[in-house]
Predict the 3D structure of the following.
Amino acid sequence: MLEALRSIVQAVNAADDLQSALDIIVTRIAEVMNTEVCTVYLRDPDTKRLIFMANQGLNPELIGKVSLGPDEGLVGLVARREEPVNLDHAEKHPNFLFLPGIGEEHYHSFLGAPIIHQRSVMGVLVVQQKDSRRFDEDEEAFLVTMSAQLAGVIAHARATGSINTAQNTVGATASFKGIAGATGVAIGQAAVVVPMAELHSVPRRQCDDVAAELKAFTAALDAVRSDIRALSDKLLTQLPADEHALFDVYLRIMDDGAWVAEVVEKIEGGEWAQGALSQVMSSHIRAFEMMEDTYFKERATDIKDLGRRVLSYLQANDIEPPDYPERTILVGEELTASMLGEVPREKLVGMVSVRGSSNSHVAILARAMGIPTVMGASDLPYTQIENANLIVDGYSGYVHYNPTPEVYEHFRSVSEEDHALNQGLEALRDLPSETLDGHRMPLWVNTGLMADVARSLDRGAEGVGLYRTEIPFLLRERFPSEEEQRVIYREQLLAFAPLPVTMRTLDIGGDKALPYFPIDEENPFLGWRGIRVTLDHPEIFLVQVRAMLKASEGLNNLRIMLPMISNVQEVDEALELVRRAYEELLEDGWDINLPPIGVMVEVPAAVYQARQLARRVDFLSVGSNDLTQYLLAVDRNNTRVADLYHAYHPAVLNSLQQVVDAAHAEGKPVGICGELAGDPAAALILMAMGYDMLSMNDNSLLRVKAVIRSCRFEDLQGLLDGVMLVDTADEVKAQLRKAMINIGMERLLQQTSGGV
């Protein structure tokens, strides 16, 4: 059975479209299970009816024409119960429904399994036989396994738009869940980006004139280089240097002699230029897509985009530039930096990518440019929504297709309120972050790009609680030198001086891999990442620390923070290296001070050793994103389990309180620099817990300050006591909602990351 399952899955994955896949499934399952009938019913997303979509053994003329309601027949029973139904005399069951002309009256044995994707029933898979018998456990298990495989096929088909039948096109109105890539609300029209040239569709063909093909290939390369430089120049004033460097990455790929030489070799061997390009690029794309490393998977997107651009010139398509809507929401299967750059900035209001995560290059650019974005909207049938009205909810990660007047009005109101609120909050910029009864709550900012600096200072940031030093590393093709790092760090320290800047040492691994330092692991989030990498490579750690210390000369506003600490030995080793670098620089004549050194608490082990850690360092800072993920075993970038990520989970809140108590017991300050710190409602309980500093995205600074200035600190302990007694995240949300309403801050509820 296992070998048969693998064979069917391979055949299905090679199918050109959904209908072909369904036909393969019913034919092969009937053959493997030796049954007379195999049928697939798919649920219409609008009517909820189960449509007869593919069949082996019954009347093929009724495919697509017969359907069952959710309460009709044995098929409806399977869908309603969401579990298999196995009968030896189907016709005797009270739910049996006779369908004239379909031909199933001769079959007595019935086995149906629901097709479920992300908790939603998408259809039913059925096998039937004339003999009156119950299917055995192995047969039932096989059908359930096949239905699970089919669920993925249907989901992919909907995402890529290969469901073209009328009953399966996107409905009059619908909502699709993705991952929040950049916050905000965008209302506009979809402009679907479909690459002009599809590499996989190019046929193999022998050429008559090798020299002409080589000339055409060279000309196409030159044309694409020119296009990329033009796009780079176009965005030069709109993007900070770090993000703008992405176009240099594209040019370096274009100048890579290895793949160019492979194409030339194939042309010289007699293949025409289009075919040679297709074969070489497709091979490289497949190799990158099969890699586990997230960074290299993203490179497959870049290579695919460049390959298509070269192919479009080879095909000599003279296509006029598209006419983008006034309020364009750019939609595509894999959005890239160059696609973003082609839309006039004044028209681009939002973006949706079917694939990708919040760490994709295009998501980084979207945040830098302030464009509301949803990534990973895997169920969105993007090829069917050209010019459709869309709403991008960059707060929750939802895309609303053809919204109803009520939904449109809601988000229009949200957008206007957001704009008005932002303008109104500007008045708070220079006012102190303190409660009505005088409790001070310093608000710091998380940065990583120079684009963050001006906005952070404009919004009244009192310091930097987290500077992500890995970003300059990610945007290069080698480790930056000590001097290159010193220049970058000096720029940050100068920009915020005399305010403190907390620089986290290199935090790679997990979903952050360097292209020139690949980390290939089966489970990277529980593997070699953060401090574990840099302690194993002290040469990297020492160079970075030396650069930080040099950059701080004469400013003395540097703080150093160690990531992914899970035991005290790691802290002891890191402190020894920092002191070594410091003493070496003193000997070299640098006039510097040893900065405060802290530890990030982001794994459960650090929570339980927080007091021991606090004894060794100057401060603690909670990374609530990773801590929540590790406590709940949930990857917040995975759409399948994203709904289980609850920053208000009682286990998370208890851990946060435990860290504060441990740090204060040792007389050390403790802050928090994850997403939770920027949640206005969460600020109420974080203050009550005793956190000494909150560090957040610059967009959240004034919202959090508004809440702080509207409450009384003496009232917050009662709120915290109540929150710590409840059993679920939903109960916590309810209490925080009530508290926000009581202080007149209900207008900020929709902006909270905790989803109050």
Q: What stands out?
A: The mean pLDDT is 85. The radius of gyration is 29 Å.
